[in-house]
Specification:
alpha/beta; Nucleotidyltransferase, domain 5; 8-stranded mixed β-sheet; 5-stranded mixed β-sheet
Length: about 350
């Protein structure tokens, strides 16, 4: 049996088709459709007709491609660029009207939990072909810096004990904190560093207290930074040097560096600042890279729990010193439902002072 997932992000929509005969998805095809929604979004994140047309076009093309590959309608979801738009509901409704596809939005905490599942499974700790054994499953930390948010998940089992979705995505940080020049001024970079440190403060202390045995980065940001630093792991010492280098270069000059794509060159500095600040605040000397992330987490849930997996309740965010986070309830404590539904907007992005 083949299954598929469609991830609609700021830069592109990505269709992944996988065989689901065993407990592990075997990817047989990936197709990307350029979107560049960040350039079309208004100052407040509003997505107009041009953005809707691109999303609907990509969704329609992906639906046709899935059919050609022998797959029914893929599970389609949109990330923060759509979820946090002030007109998210109307965008999702219009995409459904034009394509017939229900484009879902996941709470940031759910994205973090799904990514954690994929990371834990990829690392293979505590997992056999028969299922989760609990052995070797020491504290694992997963980090995912997206265009709109930064997901952090920590746990000892297949499901995380702590999940946070923070307003530290590379795109809004660049727009709101590094817009005074290209390259930005030293003062702007310092202010962004202070802001990131402030947002991370409450959560980073809790991560340090748990002392994770391994930290894993899953996002394109981490992979590009690791390539820039010349390693399969991303060491904090190398990242510090790379961040200083990026801060001194224009977007065009960054795009000429190894690992930095032209589409992400402008926001690469903000991503590097978030990665460096998080590693320093959480006491991480290095981060291991993982090729699996949220798409693979969705495929795993589909294989193991069936096509209705997404109707299960999602964690509800609570406040941890100003940072949205979720800690797993005690076994006797019921989880508060947060249903996944088309048109659901995420939490508001924090504004600079």
């Amino acid at each position: 049996m083949r299954i598929a997932v469609l991830d609609v992000g700021a830069n592109a929509a990505c269709l992944v088709v996988a065989e689901a005969e065993g407990r592990v998805p075997a990817v047989v095809g990936t197709v990307k459709y350029p979107l560049r929604l960040g350039k079309l979004a208004g100052p407040d994140g509003w997505l107009g007709e041009a953005a809707v047309e691109r999303v609907a076009g990509a969704v329609g093309a992906a639906l046709g491609e899935a059919a050609r590959r022998g797959v029914g309608e893929p599970f389609a979801f949109a990330t923060a660029i759509v979820r946090d738009a002030p007109n998210a509901a109307s965008v999702l409704d219009e995409v459904h009207r034009r394509t017939g596809v229900s484009l879902h939005t996941l709470p940031g905490e759910a994205e973090g939990a799904l990514t954690f599942l994929a990371v834990r499974r990829w690392m293979g700790e505590g997992w056999t072909g028969e299922g989760w054994t609990g052995g070797g499953g020491g504290p694992l930390l997963s980090l995912d810096i997206g265009g709109g948010t930064f997901e952090v998940a920590l746990g000892r089992g297949e499901a995380p004990d702590l999940v946070a979705s923070l307003p530290l995505g590379a795109r809004p940080l660049t727009r709101r904190w590094l817009a005074d020049g290209d390259p930005p001024s030293a003062g702007a970079v310092r202010e962004l560093r202070r802001h990131v440190a402030d947002v991370l403060r409450g959560l980073s202390g809790r991560v340090r207290a748990e002392a994770p045995l391994r930290a894993v980065g899953t996002s394109r940001t981490f992979h590009q930074l690791a390539r820039l630093c010349g390693g399969r792991q991303l060491a904090l010492a190398d990242l510090r040097s790379a961040t200083r280098r990026l801060a001194a270069l224009s977007s065009a000059e960054r795009a000429a560096l190894p690992g930095i794509s032209a589409a992400r060159a402008r926001q690469s500095l903000a991503g590097a600042i978030v990665a460096e600040s998080a590693m320093r605040a959480m006491g991480l000397a290095a981060v291991t890279l993982c090729p699996w992330a949220i798409r693979e987490g969705i495929l795993l849930r589909h294989i193991e729990d069936g096509p209705g997996w997404w109707r299960h309740p999602w964690p509800t965010a609570v406040t941890v010193n100003g940072s949205g986070a979720w800690r797993a309830p005690a076994p006797s404590e019921p989880r508060r439902p947060r249903p996944l539904r088309p048109g659901g907007a995420g939490s508001a992005t924090r504004q600079p002072p």
